Amino acid sequence: MQTTGFLILPRAAEVYQAQSSMYNVSMNLFTPFGVSEFLPDEALRHNKLTQQISKYFEIAGFSPIRTPVVEYFDALAPGLDPQLVSQSIRFFDTSGHLMILRPDHTTPIARMVASRLSDTPVPLQLYYVAPVFRNTTTDSPMELFQAGVEWIGATGPHADAQLIQQCVQLLSQLGFTDLGVDIGHPALADGLSTSDRDALVHHDYVRLGRLPERGTIDVARHIPELVALETELRTLNIHETVRYNTGLIREFDYYTGPHFEVYAKGIRQMVACGGRYDRLISKFGYDCPAVGFALNLSLIQEALAQC
Amino acid sequence: MLTIAVAKGYLMSEAVARFSEIGIQFEDDLSVSRKLFTIDTTGQYRILQVRPWDVPVYVARGAADLGVSGFDVLEEKHDAVIRLLDLGYGGCRLIMAGEKTRTFTGPFHDIRVATKYPNATSAYFQKIGIKAHIIKLYGAIELAPITGLSDVIVDLTATGKTLEENHLTIMDTIFHSTAQLITNASSFCLKDTQIRTLTRQLSGLR
User: Fold this and answer.
1) Are residues A3 and A61 in the same domain?
2) Contact call for B62 and A268, based on CB within 8 A
3) Preferred mutation among A268, A273, A302, A306 to probe B, highest tally of B CBs within 10 A
4) Fold annotation for B2-90+178-203
């Protein structure tokens, strides 16, 4: 069932009038901006989408994992990058502990792996489909649904390439075939002056004085890990889907190897991103490499609803 | 098709002139018509006429692939845009000014500053180590010191004529501003070749 503007409008006006007349009792029936509430038809679409994604991940050999929505800030802090901390929703519980609403999935999963799965033989293949919570800005909602995988203990370019392939394949199964996949690497920032690096991470190519190169592996031949990744991507026959982007570096050194961003025609923001993060889990006391990616499910669901 | 959001006024006429120099002709002259957008004769480009402060919003949210925005607006609003090129035109500067008749030994703590640019102003006073009380106004900033609403103002000026006519004198320049070509990450990924070509063509005019 499609809810149309025609159906909504008269009712919205009624509610508005009813609320205006009740203004003195200040009844507020609204939810905070940027949280999701699904009516049955929307909830049904959401469930179908998450089931389709879960099924894909399970066939690919991943097992589900759940992390808490609310955590002690101190327990996640070692692994959270400063930008994520500033975007997170934090509050005190009744005993005065600083709490945090899960701002991403990778950090709590890293904490869980280090504290509860460090004796389990690697590789571990984990997936999740659940929301994260961030401070609302005009560009980003408070509750953001994500679906993703973490491949704990996986090393080498083959794992990196395989995850990129899975991300692209899953998106195309969901109906997004016109994709742009950009690959970056922290080593792209090597040898840059502090001011050039700063200009690059802030996407200020005016200050940098040039546009960073983007293209085939030829723009990144000086980075052996990317050359090795290209070989694997060729074996999987998806090398023509990707572009190497010498401007793709992050402000904080979260990624330790190749990382990627995916854009889809018709969607105005990044639909997926991922990469290699070999040092994150060691921040929680267990030295173990890992690679993963996450889809922005909220964006995907919105785009599918418009089709 | 590439959609380009351009600030209404001087930046629009300059942008249209530069596009014309690289062979892109738009069907309507937006400065004389009431239309808010027009498409070029080849159907490859669409130009949107928006308010200066709205250009980075259209671009950051992907409603436009490209934008022509003043550096001042980008510095003030911090929208998530990619800055491609300094277009060189629309030159002006953000300055601090005060009344000519009042002698300042320098900006002092708890100084009252009227401005349309609260973020850039706050960053500037933080940089020079002065605690400032910022009063956000929407226009006719020059009136603030004259009427005692503020001690000084921070405002954009091109010629300094308005300041002069209102008996204000420039005390410091905070930054120089020109028009910049901006895009967003999604467009820059998916329409890479078109955007890079256009950027290169426009940079060739400088």
Assistant:
1) no
2) yes
3) A268
4) D-Maltodextrin-Binding Protein; domain 2 (3.40.190)
Q: Which secondary structure element, helix H or strand E, spans residue A197, and what is its range?
A: helix A194-201
Residue A268 at interface with chain B, using a CB cutoff of 8 Å: yes
Total domains in the fold of chain A: 2
B149 contacts chain A (CB < 8 A)? no
Q: How confident is the model at residue A30 (pLDDT cuts 50, 70, 90)?
A: confident
Q: Is residue A130 scored above 70 in pLDDT?
A: yes
Omega of the bond leading into A186 within 30 degrees of 0 (cis): no
| Residues of chain A neighbouring B185 (CB-CB closer than 8 A) | 203, 261, 263, 269-270
DSSP class of A189 = G
Q: How far apart, in whole angstroms, are the C-alpha atoms of residue A234 and residue A27?
A: 61
Q: Report pTM.
A: 0.89
Does A28 reside within a domain? yes
| A267 chain-B contacts, CB cut-off 8 A | 186
Contact state of A203 with B199 under an 8 Å Cβ cutoff: no
Higher-confidence residue: A6 or A75? A75
Average pLDDT score, chain A: 91
Per CATH, is B92-176 categorized as 3.40.190.10? yes
What pLDDT does residue A251 have? 78
Chain A residues touching residue B81 (CB < 8 angstroms): 203
Please check whether residue A166 lies inside any domain of the structure: yes
* A259 lies in some domain: yes
Q: What is the per-residue DSSP string for B155-186?
A: EEESSSHHHHHTTEEEEEEEEEE-EEEEE-HH
pLDDT over threshold 70, residue A37: yes
Is B100 an interface residue toward A (CB < 8 Å)? no
Domain with CATH 3.40.190.10 in chain B: 2-90+178-203, 92-176
Q: Does B178 touch chain A (CB under 8 A)?
A: no
Question: How do residues A119-129 score in pLDDT, each as one tens digit?
Answer: 999 999 999 99
Which range of residues forms the domain containing residue A23?
Answer: 1-33
Give residue-wise pLDDT tens across range A68-109.
999 999 999 999 988 899 999 999 999 999 999 999 999 999
Check which CATH number belongs to the domain holding A196 and give it. 3.30.930.10
Give tens-digit pLDDT for B26-71.
888 887 788 899 999 999 999 999 999 999 999 999 999 999 999 9
Q: Mutate which of B79, B85, B182, B188 to disrupt the A interface (most A C-beta within 10 Å)?
A: B188
Shared-domain flag, residues A208 and A149 = yes
CA–CA distances in Å: residue B54 to residues A5, A149, A157, A189, B69: 26, 38, 43, 33, 9
